[in-house]
Write a structure and sequence with these properties.
The chain has helices spanning 2-25, 33-51, 62-74, 77-110, 116-133, 138-147, 151-174, 179-235, 237-246, 254-271, 283-298, 318-336, 388-399, and strands at 302-308, 343-350, 354-362, 403-410, 415-424. With 428 residues, it is α+β, with helices and mostly antiparallel strands.
C-alpha cells in the first residue's frame, strides 16, 4: 500500500511540474508526446533509485530533465527557458512548502505522525492550487513580467530559488523541516517580491508616461500638418469649381464632359480624403494614421477608412494602440507591394463598451485552417527572422484581455485578408 501511495505521490508531483511549466510558456496547455516521455523518464529514474537503494539526493539529477524537457518542447531559447524553469521551482515549491508547512505544524501541535497519505493529500491540494493559479494566464503574464523586468526582479527570483533549493536539499538529505524554516522563508520571500514588483510597477508607469509624451510630441506636429493642409485645400475650392464649370469648353460631347468632370471630382475627393481624419479628437491617433496613410499612398495603395472614435477612453494605453496599428499597417503595406490590386481598408469603431480595430488588405485567399499559423511566433510569409510583430500584438491582446479574429475571403474582383482586434472597457 505504501509503494502505491508513493507512486501516486510522484505522478501528482510530475503533473504539478507539467501544469506550471506549460502555463509559464503559453496561455493554454498542450499535451504532446514529449510530456509522456518526460513522465516515463522521471518515474524510471525514481524506480532505479528505489531498487538500488541509492541516496534520495540522486533524484536532484531529475531537475536537469525538467530543463531539457522545457528546451525540447517550447524552443524558447536559453534565457526564457532558464527564467521559466526557475519560476517553476519558485512557484511550485512555494505552494508545496506552504501546504506541507501547514501539515507539519498541525502534526507538531497534535503530536501526530506524518503518513504518506498526508503527503499525497498535500500534493493533490498543491496541484489544485496551481491549476487555479494558472487561470486567466497568470503564470504566462508572470513569466513575461520577469523577462521584461529590471535586475531587481531577477535578484528576487534567484534569491527565492536558492532558499527553496536549500530547503529541498535539507529535506532530501534529512527528511525533516523546522517550523522556523517555513516562517523565515515565507516572510523573506514575500517581502522581496513585494519590493521587486512595486519597483517594477513604478518603472512601468514611468515608462508608459514617457512613451505617451514622446508619441504626443511626435504626432501632434503631424496632426497640425494635416490641419494646415486641409485649410489650404479649402482655399482652393473656388479654383476647383471654376475648373469644373469650364470643362464644357474643352469637351466635344456630353459623354466626354461627364467623363472629365467625374475624373476631376474623383481626384479632388482623393486629394482631400485624409481631411476626414480631423474628426478624430485624439491628435496622437489622428497624426499617426495620417503618417501611415501617406506612406501607404506613396507605395501605391488605394486606401479607404472608416474611423469612428470619440474620447478613446480605452483600457489600452494609446502607445499600445499605436504599437498594434503599426504592426498591422506595416504588414499590410509590405504585403500589398507584391499584389496586383493594392486595396487597403482600415476601420476603427468605438462604442460605449468596446473598441475594434480592423485592417484589411488584398491578399491571396487562405483556407481557414491555415490562418492560425499567422499567430505563431516567428511565422511569416516574408522570409526568415520575421513574424515577431504579430507575436508582440498577441502579447498586448493577452495583457488587456482582448480578442483577435483573422479572416480571409474573396470578393467579385479581389481576395483579401483581415485582422480584427477588440478590447472591452469593462471585463467581458
Amino acid at each position: 500500500m505504501l509503494e502505491i501511495l508513493f507512486c501516486i505521490n510522484q505522478i501528482i508531483e510530475l503533473f504539478q511540474i507539467l501544469i506550471c511549466l506549460n502555463y509559464l510558456f503559453r496561455p493554454k496547455y498542450c499535451f504532446k508526446i514529449c510530456d509522456g516521455i518526460f513522465i516515463a523518464a522521471e518515474l524510471m529514474l525514481s524506480e532505479l533509485v528505489n531498487l538500488n537503494h541509492w541516496n534520495e539526493a540522486v533524484l536532484m539529477i531529475a531537475y536537469l530533465g525538467i530543463y531539457a524537457y522545457a528546451l525540447v518542447k517550447f524552443k524558447g531559447g536559453l534565457k526564457k527557458t532558464t527564467v521559466n524553469v526557475v519560476l517553476l521551482f519558485v512557484i511550485n515549491s512555494f505552494v508545496q512548502l506552504l501546504c506541507s508547512g501547514l501539515l507539519f505544524l498541525l502534526c507538531y501541535i497534535f503530536q501526530a505522525d506524518r503518513q504518506m497519505g498526508g503527503f499525497v493529500a498535500i500534493n493533490v491540494f498543491t496541484l489544485l492550487l496551481l491549476m487555479i493559479g494558472s487561470r486567466k494566464e497568470r503564470f504566462y503574464r508572470l513569466s513575461r513580467f520577469v523577462l521584461e523586468s529590471n535586475c531587481l526582479t531577477y535578484v528576487a527570483m534567484i534569491g527565492s530559488f536558492f532558499v527553496i533549493a536549500y530547503l529541498l536539499i535539507v529535506y532530501k538529505l534529512g527528511n525533516y523541516f523546522r517550523v522556523t524554516d517555513y516562517l523565515v522563508f515565507g516572510v523573506v520571500t514575500v517581502l522581496i517580491w513585494i519590493l521587486a514588483i512595486s519597483w517594477q510597477k513604478e518603472k512601468c508607469e514611468k515608462t508608459a508616461k514617457e512613451k505617451e509624451i514622446a508619441l504626443r510630441e511626435q504626432y501632434d506636429s503631424l496632426f497640425q500638418d494635416l490641419v494646415t493642409s486641409a485649410r489650404k485645400k479649402q482655399h482652393d475650392i473656388d479654383d476647383h469649381i471654376n475648373v469644373i464649370f469650364c470643362q464644357h469648353k474643352i469637351a466635344k460631347t456630353l459623354d466626354e464632359l461627364v467623363s472629365l468632370q467625374k475624373e476631376y471630382c474623383n481626384w479632388i475627393i482623393d486629394e482631400n480624403s485624409f481631411s476626414h481624419l480631423l474628426a478624430i479628437k485624439n491628435p496622437v491617433l489622428g497624426g499617426f494614421l495620417y503618417s501611415k496613410f501617406c506612406q501607404a499612398k506613396e507605395a501605391g495603395c488605394r486606401i479607404k477608412f472608416d474611423i469612428k472614435v470619440d474620447s478613446l477612453s480605452c483600457c489600452v494605453p494609446i502607445y499600445k494602440i499605436v504599437e498594434i496599428l503599426t504592426v498591422l499597417l506595416n504588414n499590410a503595406r509590405e504585403a500589398l507591394e507584391e499584389q496586383e490590386k493594392k486595396n487597403l481598408f482600415v476601420k476603427i469603431q468605438e462604442t460605449e463598451n468596446e473598441i475594434t480595430f480592423l485592417v484589411q488588405n488584398s491578399f491571396p485567399y487562405i483556407p481557414r485552417k491555415d490562418l492560425v499559423d499567422f499567430l505563431k511566433l516567428g511565422y511569416s510569409t516574408k522570409g526568415e527572422s520575421r513574424g515577431l510583430g504579430l507575436a508582440k500584438v498577441m502579447d498586448i491582446i493577452h495583457d488587456y484581455n482582448g480578442e483577435i479574429e483573422i479572416r480571409s475571403g474573396r470578393d467579385e474582383d479581389d481576395s483579401w485578408i483581415s485582422f480584427q482586434i477588440s478590447f472591452w472597457f469593462t471585463e467581458k
